[in-house]
């Protein structure tokens, strides 16, 4: 089992940048594929980005491709989401999630493929 704690985010003007971090407990962080999701007010939670266990494979939602970068540091048990060129429509609560996959190169974009979730972190982009 793993516990996830997000940090970072906050308030930024459109065009600015923010970075989210997600720290995982336990000694087996490298056994989990990781993902970021977000939920805007009045909307369903949606996929943002995913990364494989090794970090060698990544996948992004079309809406963030070219602006957001997911990365991980397995030595620090942490996954990151660097968000650049932020837009007001990026405003949401952002969640990290973990999938205890046996496949080192796999990434996942469906919410039901993730077993563990963080508590969420607010990101607000003003126009």
Topology (elements, then pairings):
Layout (H helix, E strand, L loop, with lengths): L3 E5 L1 E4 L4 E7 L8 E7 L6 E6 L6 E3 L7 E6 L4 E6 L8 E8 L16 E2 L3 E6 L1
Parallel strand pairs: 2-11
Antiparallel strand pairs: 1-3, 3-8, 4-5, 4-9, 5-6, 7-8, 9-10, 9-11
Give the tags.
127 residues; mainly beta; 7-stranded mixed sheet; 4-stranded antiparallel sheet; 11 strands; 0% helix; globular
Average the pLDDT over all residues and give the rounded result.
96
Give the ordered list of helices and strands.
EEEEEEEEEEE
Whole-angstrom Rg: 13 Å
Low-confidence stretches: none
| Tally of DSSP β-strands | 11
Q: Major beta sheet, specifics?
A: 7 strands, mixed
Anisotropy-based shape? globular
Distance between the termini: 40 Å
By DSSP (H or I, 4+ residues per run), the number of helices equals 0
Give the amount of beta strand, in percent. over 45%
Category by helix and strand content:
mainly beta
Fraction of helical residues? under 10%
Short summary of the structure?
The protein has 127 residues and is mainly β.
Give a description of the structure.
The protein has 127 residues and is mostly beta strands. The protein is built from no helices and eleven strands. The protein has strands spanning 4-8, 10-13, 18-24, 33-39, 46-51, 58-60, 68-73, 78-83, 92-99, 116-117, 121-126. The strands form two sheets. Strands 2, 4, 5, 6, 9, 10 and 11 form a seven-stranded mixed β-sheet that branches. Strand 7 and strand 8 form a beta hairpin. It starts with a strand and ends with a strand.
């Amino acid at each position: 089992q793993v516990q996830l704690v997000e940090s970072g985010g906050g308030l930024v003007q459109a065009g600015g940048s923010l970075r989210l971090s997600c720290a995982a407990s336990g000694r087996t962080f490298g056994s989990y594929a990781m993902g970021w999701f977000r939920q805007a007010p009045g909307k369903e939670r949606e996929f943002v980005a995913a990364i494989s266990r090794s970090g060698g494979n990544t996948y992004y939602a079309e809406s963030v491709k070219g602006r957001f970068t997911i990365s991980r540091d397995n030595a620090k048990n942490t996954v990151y989401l660097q968000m650049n060129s932020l837009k007001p429509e990026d405003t949401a609560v952002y969640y990290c999630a973990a999938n205890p996959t046996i496949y080192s190169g796999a990434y996942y974009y469906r919410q039901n493929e993730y077993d563990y979730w963080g508590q969420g972190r607010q990101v607000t982009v003003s126009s």
